[in-house]
Specification:
The chain is of the alpha/beta class. The chain is 42% helix and 20% strand. The model has no long low-confidence stretch (mean pLDDT 96). This is Aldehyde dehydrogenase family protein.
């Protein structure tokens, strides 16, 4: 047990609670700790404390708020190794990749600390003797509910944007990474005024109760099913809503690209973080002209991954977050094979402890299969052979999700056609994980709503007021 686990275990043991979350390492089943679940009254009290702190935080100058967020980024940087270690222990991500994710979260906090004081309204052209303004104001109390697959980076983005725009925050991290969320919340709270940020540990019941409270905005990153329930709660309370939810992101491989390079891109997109990314490649449409070579190369690359615990430096593919997710992934693969898909590699449960699942390549998949319709969130690459680029576009544009899509093509005309016609928030051409910092998009359909990144995220946490100032009569 590392020192950070020992320290947190002592803190948790001293916390009174009627219910506990027992978190196990998905690599070997060893205990990470028992985290106390907050009782319902604590959820209510947290929102009340945030409501009481909101006016003072809103009146704090943007420069002062930004300075505190900068200080928070520095404090997180000092604990970066501990946060990366806990991420690996709780959800299995190789520790080097977990460290990169923590660094991304620190960078995002600093980004919003710089952007916050620059967020501005505008003046309007009104009467000569009057002044007309559109001015931004914080919404008030923000409920921030974050996922387990990238617990530090996503949390830092949403919390950072909420804080610099003058909102108080009630933070509910995922019950699948409770220790990581606990530590992150404790670090942030240590540099902020009382009540400005409160962390709630617990499962779906705690999250559901939070969304039913009188908060002003709910920011959620997670599954589409949870997102729909949150949307229903927000419709009752009137809270503004920001959601980035599930995806079933397609990859289109055109006839004119190098199949080996395309397979490398596909393997990166499908198997990074064991497929546990919202923007993972979850279905592949490859032109029949290169399909054979592409499948051979993709299979070869899948077989090169080394499964193992995330804390082993030789590991390139860690476990899934838990056995429950592994069973869901395996069910989709078994159903596809039974329906006629060709299993090129993987697809079998490994022996021994842990929630490991091998990189899996499926050929000859059909649109009726769950592996092409439902979010998988595992290291599975289902491949469909198509006869034309237009057919690939049509198939890629189907389904309930609309988060992102990738296209590999040497044709400028096809690239233009793809980004214009694909009904998704983000289209990536010739680079499955590329993109300039600060990009923000609107997800479609079951994938959510609102800007989740970039300078536009500041707009989600603020509301606009129009002011008309006219002189009094003499």
């Amino acid at each position: 047990m590392r020192d950070i686990e020992r320290v947190l275990t002592e803190e948790w043991a001293a916390t009174p609670a009627d219910e506990w979350i027992t978190k196990l390492d998905p690599a070997d089943g060893s205990p990470v700790g028992q985290i106390p679940v907050v009782p319902p009254r604590r959820v209510v009290e947290a929102v009340q404390a945030a409501r009481a702190a909101a006016p003072g935080w809103a009146r704090t100058s943007p420069a002062q708020r930004a300075a505190m967020v900068h200080e928070a980024a520095r404090a997180i940087e000092e604990c970066a190794d501990d946060l990366a270690w806990l991420t690996t222990r709780e959800m299995g991500r190789p520790v080097g990749q977990a460290a990169e994710s923590v660094a991304a979260g620190i960078g995002t906090l600093r980004q919003y600390a710089e952007l916050g004081p620059l967020h501005r309204g505008r003046s309007l052209a009104g009467e000569w003797g009057a002044t007309d303004l559109m001015t931004y104001q914080p919404r008030g109390v923000a409920a921030v509910i974050t996922p387990w697959n990238d617990p530090v980076a996503v949390s830092c983005g949403l919390i950072g944007a909420a804080l610099v725009t003058g909102n108080s925050v009630v933070y509910k991290p995922s019950e699948r990474t409770p220790a990581t969320g606990w530590l992150l919340g404790r670090i942030l709270d240590g540099v902020l005024p009382p009540g400005v940020l409160t962390t709630l540990s617990g499962g779906p019941t705690v999250g559901a109760l939070l969304t039913e409270q009188p908060v002003d905005v709910i920011a959620h990153v997670g599954s589409s099913a949870t997102g729909r329930r949150i949307a229903q709660a927000a419709a009752v309370t009137g809270a503004a809503l920001l959601r980035e939810n599930g995806g079933k992101d397609p990859l289109i491989v055109d006839a004119d690209v190098d199949p080996a390079w395309a397979a490398e891109q596909a393997a990166t997109g499908a198997f990074a973080n064991a497929g546990q990314l919202c923007v993972a490649v979850e279905r592949i449409y490859v032109h029949e002209r290169i399909a054979g070579d592409f499948l051979d190369e993709l299979t070869k690359r899948a077989e090169q991954f080394r499964m193992g615990p995330g804390w082993d430096p030789e590991t390139t593919l860690g476990p899934l977050v838990d056995l429950a997710l592994r069973e869901l992934v395996h069910d989709q693969v078994r159903e596809a094979v039974a329906a006629g898909a060709e299993l090129r590699c993987g697809g079998e449960l490994p022996g021994g402890p842990g929630a490991f699942y091998p990189p899996t390549v499926l050929a000859n998949c059909a649109e009726a299969m769950a592996v092409l319709r439902e979010e998988t969130f595992g290291p599975v690459a289902p491949v469909v052979t198509v006869g034309s680029f237009e057919e690939a576009l049509r198939l890629a544009d189907g389904g309930d999700y609309g988060l992102a899509a990738s296209v590999l093509t040497g044709s400028v005309a096809h690239a233009q056609q793809a980004w214009r016609e694909l009904d998704v928030g983000t289209v990536k051409v010739n680079d499955v994980f590329g993109g300039a910092p600060g990009g923000a998009a609107h997800p479609r359909r079951a994938s959510g709503s609102g800007f989740g990144y970039g300078p536009e995220l500041l707009d989600e946490f603020t509301t606009v007021k129009v002011v008309h100032l006219a002189p009094a009569p003499a």
